[in-house]
């Protein structure tokens, strides 16, 4: 029993160290400025991971993800301000509302492919921003919605930066865990087959349109959750926070970190939020910087820093490491599963 526990801890030691580092970070670094940066990194990690479900794992190309981010933010703000909905209910409801609009958009557009899907999602992002500007009675137009209540779970009210830090930390873990389970399921394998060869997937009996609509809807759910947290964290939202440029920023994060795995979006989001803080004097040129990143990555490392592969940060305990056995050719790997029986003279027989 003890050996199994030690083996489990050793196998997942890297994950436990990363988890422990970020879980204990506020205990050693109490500066609100650094916590604020980490909170925004957490928001964009959720957004980048959700977009990665569409662009990375399914092979589609959506360029209007910020619209669903904005739907989540506006839904949560209006639910709490107009209807008095508690935050603990407004958070999942905002994700569901964003997912509902994702389904409405995905149902007709995901039958398209290539540039047509890209243009459809871009058009939806532009329409969403224009509606938020012109619906003055509902959204206060370009003035935005202010005075959004702070999150409150049961009797505990979130008021400090460290409170928001642990809340977004939980949401990031929830998003990572959910996506990991999705990708390592039968559903996830169907998505990967669509990405690699959609025609062959259809020939094998995979309902590609159904799977694409489902993953698009699920992706927008996570974007809606990120938008809800964003609204209650800043306590103010306006249409210019959800424009096409925000979608472009998310694409730059995937281009830098890489798509088709869980590590790339996390690294890309972290770098593109943290690094500009070191060069705040270049804030006005942020989009130029993101454009240059896209160009450089497309020229020299098209798949990003982390390519389309699974990065398992696990350590194998010494007692579980297998010895070096015979080397089999690719076509003869089935031989290693066949037991050999010795004959009377000591020679192996079938």
Features:
350 residues; mainly alpha; ABC transporter involved in vitamin B12 uptake, BtuC; two-stranded antiparallel ribbon; globular
Give structural notes.
With 350 residues, this protein is mainly alpha-helical. It has helices at residues 2-11, 13-28, 32-55, 65-82, 87-109, 115-134, 136-139, 161-183, 186-196, 198-203, 208-234, 244-257, 263-278, 286-300, and strands at residues 145-146, 152-153, 156-157, 236-237, 341-342, 348-349. The strands form three sheets. It has a two-stranded antiparallel sheet. Strand 5 and strand 6 form a beta hairpin. Helix 3 (32-55) runs parallel beside helix 8, helix 3 packs antiparallel against helix 13 (263-278) and helix 8 runs antiparallel to helix 11 (208-234). The chain is globular and about 65 Å long. Residues 327-336 and 345-350 have low confidence and may be disordered.
């Amino acid at each position: 029993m003890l050996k199994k526990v030690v083996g489990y801890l050793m196998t997942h030691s890297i994950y436990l160290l990363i988890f422990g580092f970020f879980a204990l970070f506020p205990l050693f670094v109490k500066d609100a400025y650094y916590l604020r940066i980490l909170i925004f990194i957490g928001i964009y990690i959720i957004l980048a991971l959700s977009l990665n479900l569409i662009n990375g794992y399914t092979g589609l190309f959506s360029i209007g993800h910020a619209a669903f981010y904005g739907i989540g933010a506006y839904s949560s703000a209006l639910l709490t301000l107009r209807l008095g909905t508690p935050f603990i209910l407004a958070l999942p409801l905002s994700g569901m509302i964003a997912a509902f609009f994702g389904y409405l958009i995905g149902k007709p557009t995901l039958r398209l492919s290539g540039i047509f899907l890209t243009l459809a999602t871009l058009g939806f992002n532009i329409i969403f921003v224009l509606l938020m500007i012109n619906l003055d009675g509902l959204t206060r137009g370009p003035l935005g919605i202010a005075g959004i209540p702070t999150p409150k779970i049961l009797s505990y009210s979130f008021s400090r930066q460290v409170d928001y830090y642990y809340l977004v930390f939980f949401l990031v873990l929830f998003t990572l865990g959910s996506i990991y389970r999705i990708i390592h399921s039968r559903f996830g394998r169907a998505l990967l087959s669509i990405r690699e060869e959609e025609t062959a997937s259809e020939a094998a009996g995979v309902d590609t349109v159904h799977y694409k609509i489902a993953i698009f809807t699920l992706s927008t759910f996570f974007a809606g959750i990120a938008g809800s947290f964003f609204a209650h964290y800043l306590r103010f939202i306006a249409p210019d926070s959800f424009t096409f440029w925000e979608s472009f920023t998310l694409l730059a994060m995937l281009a830098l970190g890489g798509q088709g795995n869980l590590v790339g979006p996390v690294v890309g989001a972290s770098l593109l939020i943290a690094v500009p803080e070191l060069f705040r004097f270049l804030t006005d040129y942020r989009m130029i910087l993101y454009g240059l990143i896209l160009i450089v990555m497309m020229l020299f490392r098209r798949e990003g820093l982390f390519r389309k592969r699974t990065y398992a940060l696990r350590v194998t305990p010494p007692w579980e490491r297998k010895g070096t056995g015979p080397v089999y050719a690719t076509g003869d790997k089935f031989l290693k599963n066949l037991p050999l029986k010795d004959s009377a003279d000591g020679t192996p027989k079938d």
